[in-house]
Amino acid sequence: xxxxxxxxxxxxxxxxxxxxxxxxxxxxxxxxxxxxxxxxxxxxxxxxxxxxxxxxxxxxxxxxxxxxxxxxxxxxxxxxxxxxxxxxxxxxxxxxxxxxxxxxxxxxxxxxxxxxxxxxxxxxxxxxxxxxxxxxxxxxxxxxxxxxxxxxxxxxxxxxxxxxxxxxxxxxxxxxxxxxxxxxxxxxxxxxxxxxxxxxxxxxxxxxxxxxxxxxxxxxxxxxxxxxxxxxxxxxxxxxxxxxxxxxxxxxxxxxxxxxxxxxxxxxxxxxxxxxxxxxxxxxxxxxxxxxxxxxxxxxxxxxxxxxxxxxxxxxxxxxxxxxxxxxxxxxxxxxxxxxxxxxxxxxxxxxxxxxxxxxxxxxxxxxxxxxxxxxxxxxxxxxxxxxxxxxxxxxxxxxxxxxxxxxxxxxxxxxxxxxxxxxxxxxxxxxxxxxxxxxxxxxxxxxxxxxxxxxxxxxxxxxxxxxxxxxxxxxxxxxxxxxxxxxxxxxxxxxxxxxxxxxxxxxxxxxxxxxxxxxxxxxxxxxxxx
Length: 531
Description:
Blueprint: H1 2-20, H2 23-33, H3 37-52, H4 60-70, H5 80-127, H6 129-135, H7 152-181, H8 186-229, E1 230-231, E2 234-235, H9 240-256, H10 261-315, H11 320-335, H12 341-397, H13 403-420, H14 424-450, H15 454-488, H16 495-530
Antiparallel strand pairs: 1-2
Helix pairs in contact: 1-7, 3-4, 3-5, 5-6, 5-7, 5-8, 7-8, 8-10, 9-10, 10-11, 10-12, 11-12, 12-13, 12-14, 13-14, 15-16
């Protein structure tokens, strides 16, 4: 309604201005200056023509008044030829005025019809106001990350309705201005203005109510925000950069929301003061940061001196362990002094550079060790390959060699395999080859035994039987010795009984030694016969 009243005031002012500067009064002044009727008619005709050619809408009222003044002048004394020319021009202007009036009436009727349609559309929207609001696009004010996020839904709902009301209000004002400036009958104009006033009565009070509600709510929230984060000239709760961004967002939201002038001004001033307080605090913190940086620089230089000592030590023949120990001491010292993140990073890089000579020597030593280990491994693999080839060659030559030669070469290869410290897979391969060689040797021994004389075979059988018998006796003696040892371990025996058992054990040991010697002599004899 404020906007409508403003339009009415503007129209009234325009009408008063037109009354003050009336063209008819100018026409009267010009007519008074002229003495002849001919000149007066010329002035009137020019006035009528200018009234029709007026920019915008022709001044028909001035035209008809000028025409009325001009008509009696033709009765005065004027030459017939001039009167005829003036009369033709007078008639032509009158006809032209009528044609223009008809055209303008048609345009006015069309404009009235269009305004009528627009008002009807506005009335339908107001009749289904709730549906119009619900169908309008949802608003997103971006309050999710701000202190107003808990009321985001309320703000967005109110502003959504206000956006609809703002559009409707602008339509009412635009149509009112269109009605005022459009040439039409006063009765029709008043009727259209009355209908727009009824529409405005439905729009502007509701809009005013919502503007007041959202303004009060926003003002209260800004006050809470200021009180919470800027209490007693101290910034609390969250970091400065977050507060700075939130103030900027709140200022932007204040421009989006439909607030009254007082609330908009007050909230902007409050947020500006908070912004200035942030700037002041930021300035103080920058000063503190500058002081800290000076302290960081001094401590940085102290640590750098120790790093230079570390670099000198690492450039000499120093072990990696000692190098690490010295660097650990520097790190421990760094923890006792104030240093910035950049200084710590730079010092760590300097420590690493200082340690590089020692680490490079250790790396070269490790590479040399790995090279020697690789060479030793290659040599071992060559020997293993030689062992495999030796076993293969010995198996292929077995038919041409006697048992003693085979056994001698086998024992030499076996000694080599023991020295090589084979892994599991390599040992499995060598064991398979040795078993094949053993089978060949056993086969040769078997063939040699078959070639013995009857007496030698009989002696061989007797020797084997004797060995088996003596091995049985050896097993019995070992069992008896184990029995005596268990008895000796029993704490229930007396000293005399224990001495007796020890004598039994010594006797059995001597018998076992004699038996082992006898078995070895007989097995040696068997080997000789087999050979």
